[in-house]
Design brief:
The complex is a heterodimer.
Chain A lengths: L1 E2 L3 E2 L3 E4 L7 E6 L16 E3 L3 E9 L2 E2 L4 E7 L6 E4 L30 E3 L3 E23 L10 E7 L6 E8 L9 E23 L17 E9 L8
Parallel strand pairs in A: 2-8
Antiparallel strand pairs in A: 1-3, 3-5, 4-6, 6-8, 9-11, 10-15, 11-14, 11-15, 12-13, 12-14
Chain B lengths: L2 H10 L14 E2 L3 E4 L2 E6 L15 E6 L5 E5 L6 E4 L5 E5 L6 E9 L2 E8 L4 E6 L4 E5 L18 E4 L5 E4 L6 E5 L5 E6 L14 E4 L6 E6 L4 E5 L5 E6 L3 E3 L3 E3 L2 E9 L9 E5 L5 E5 L6 E2 L2 E2 L12 E6 L5 E5 L8 E5 L1
Antiparallel strand pairs in B: 2-3, 3-29, 4-5, 5-6, 6-7, 8-9, 9-10, 10-11, 12-13, 13-14, 14-15, 16-17, 17-18, 18-19, 20-22, 21-22, 22-23, 23-24, 25-26, 27-28, 28-29
The chains are: A mainly beta, B mainly beta.
């Protein structure tokens, strides 16, 4: 399956590769596995709205394939300026702006869209020329523990106080890592209630300085890979 | 695999917009693979070896000798070489000294079969008889001026020219092709990494193609999903692109070129391998376990797995009855499969 991005600004074309005589790919937008009664994929699909598409290859002479799915998310608001702490040399993109370009969401650390860090902590600072109302922030993270890429141990959201200019912590969350998860794009969602009004926020991600004991490479330093910061003045996930 | 090798690989890989690990191959409920006049019935239970007495780890490469026996090279040092008859019965085994056994090439030297083993861990190429007696050892090629220690040389494959010249590909090292005479004396080196069509990335395999007017070398550039052709003197000729396919060693038998594909770009690190058959003009005519081959003009369409027949195929051997044997890397220590033409 091919698509340019899981983050949608206007539309995205989804192409599925599966030329196997005797089998056809069926798909559905509903929250269930496709069956042979669902439409057959014949030509690339144009996706204009966020949501999940599920595909399954079915043929008389074969057992059906596993269902695969891809989810598309609305891109976040434009960020006037975005800066980060230093990425690792091999996985730095041309600029931090790629974290706000609505391109990415492909679960492959070699895809070229990811910015990778292996420092103990990672910060991302987003600022605007005018104050913004922020109700939700979604982060596009890569989970691929087999390649030493973990979700952050902790994520903190700081906002710049409009009067004093000081950074104040607004929200934090811990993410436990107890076993190898699926290799996937992990959209970490945070809703802010009450809403934040600020011209700058800072996202601080704490890395696993030591890969947890359950992993075959325990004790090594983990990596954090991120490809998109989606800041919204509306709730996407709550409205799903 | 350590993190350093991930970095090394990714720094040379081509960025892809394919999603790995999504559309799984279909489980076959019947056992015919391939397309057109290159279709095969697969027998996954061909091998009759007893795991207790003849274990394998990675099954890296296979050849058939002049007696018709099938030789398998594995990196299990209980028996680096397992020798089978065509029915899958173990006839003999030997070898405890090849922890990094990877490349196995057979050459008829004045009517006698000799083997060339590439050992990744020993950083050497070892020439032996078919019963394991060592005849010659090639250490890292200092003469090239490109290597400062043996560790940098990680040979993956050899091919022997009719005049006895030995070509070694350093596929997990610096990707050079190093040419020696039959005595193991350095002649020249070429390929390696760089910007330009004449360079390669992951020179995993090599063979000599004698089907055309002039013989030529075919060198694998696995990460680039291509073969590259050179003259026997190392002059670059052209590139045979095979988009999406992590091709291993090219194996020529009759009019066809056969190659195991370790995995597809569309699904890296997810057991997405298949086997290709190319005709004399290097066009893909059959894909065993993969999609129906298609072309846009002279450019092949992307290749990928559709049927989960193989995990990580690493080499093919075609015997004198046109049967195919497939050896697999990192696939649960599975013994080779045999595929019979239908």
């Amino acid at each position: 399956m091919k698509y340019k991005s899981a983050y949608i600004r206007d539309s995205v074309i989804v192409e599925v590769l599966f030329n196997q005589p005797g089998a056809a790919v069926h798909y559905t937008l509903e929250l269930r596995d496709p069956t042979e009664k669902d439409p057959v994929y014949r030509t690339p699909l144009s996706v204009k709205k966020p949501g999940t598409i599920r595909f399954k290859a079915i043929g008389n002479d074969f057992e059906p394939s596993e269902t695969i799915s891809v989810s598309f998310f609305p891109a976040g608001k434009k960020i006037d300026s975005i800066r980060t702490s230093a990425p690792q040399e091999f996985y730095k993109n041309q600029s931090a702006e790629t974290l706000n370009d609505a391109v990415g969401g492909i679960a492959n650390f070699r895809s070229g869209h990811w910015t990778g860090f292996n420092s103990d902590s990672v910060w991302i600072e987003c600022s605007w020329n005018r104050p913004q109302t922020i109700i939700e922030i979604d982060l596009g993270l890569l989970q691929d523990e087999a390649s030493w890429i973990f979700l952050p141990k902790r994520i903190e959201y700081w906002k710049k106080d409009r009067k004093t200019g000081k950074w104040l912590i607004n929200h934090s969350k811990d993410i436990a890592s107890t076993a190898k998860g699926p290799k996937q794009v992990y959209i970490d969602q945070t809703n802010f209630n009450p809403e934040i009004v600020t011209s700058a926020i800072k996202i601080l991600m704490i890395n696993h300085s030591n890969i947890p004991d359950w992993h075959e490479s325990k004790g090594e330093r983990a990596w954090i890979f991120i490809d998109e910061v989606m800041v919204r003045s509306w709730n996407y996930f709550k409205t799903q | 695999m350590n993190r350093r090798s991930f970095i090394h690989k990714s720094s040379v890989a081509v960025a892809s917009i394919c999603i790995p690990g999504i559309l799984r191959g279909l489980q076959p409920t019947y056992n015919i693979l391939g397309h057109g006049n290159k279709q095969y019935r697969i027998d996954t239970k061909w091998c009759q070896a007893n795991r207790a007495t003849h274990p394998v780890r990675d099954c890296h490469e296979m050849v058939q000798d002049s007696k018709g026996r099938i030789l398998l090279l594995t990196n299990d040092t209980h028996n680096n070489v397992l020798i089978f008859d065509k029915s899958g019965k173990v006839l003999n085994s030997w070898g405890t000294e090849y922890p990094g056994a990877h490349g196995l090439t057979l050459f008829s030297e004045g009517g006698s079969d000799v083997l060339f083993i590439c050992d990744n861990n020993r950083h050497q190429v070892i020439k032996t008889t078919t019963d394991g007696k060592v005849l010659l050892t090639l250490d890292y090629p200092k003469e090239t001026g490109k290597y400062s220690s043996a560790d940098e040389f990680v040979p993956t494959e050899t091919v022997i020219a009719p005049n006895g010249d030995i070509y070694v590909v350093d596929g997990y090292g610096k990707d050079y092709v190093i040419q020696y005479n039959y005595k193991g004396e350095y002649i020249r080196h070429f390929a390696g990494r760089g910007e330009g069509d004449e360079f390669v990335v992951n020179a995993h395999g090599i063979t000599i193609d004698t089907r055309g007017i002039e013989p030529c070398l075919i060198v694998t550039s696995r990460v680039q999903n291509a073969f590259k052709r050179y003259t026997l003197e190392g002059k670059y000729i052209d590139t045979i692109p095979l988009p999406g396919a992590w091709v291993c060693r090219p194996v020529i038998k009759g009019n066809y070129l056969y190659v195991a594909v370790l995995q597809s770009n569309a699904r890296l690190d997810e057991k997405s391998g298949f086997v290709l058959v190319l005709d004399k003009n290097y066009r893909v005519v059959s894909n065993l376990g993969g999609n129906l081959p298609g072309y846009n003009g002279n450019t092949p369409e992307e290749l990928y797995q559709t049927i989960r027949a193989f995990e990580y195929p690493h080499d093919v051997c075609i015997d004198n009855d046109e049967n195919m044997y497939v050896a697999q890397w990192n696939s649960g220590q599975v013994y080779p499969y045999k595929l019979m033409p239908v």
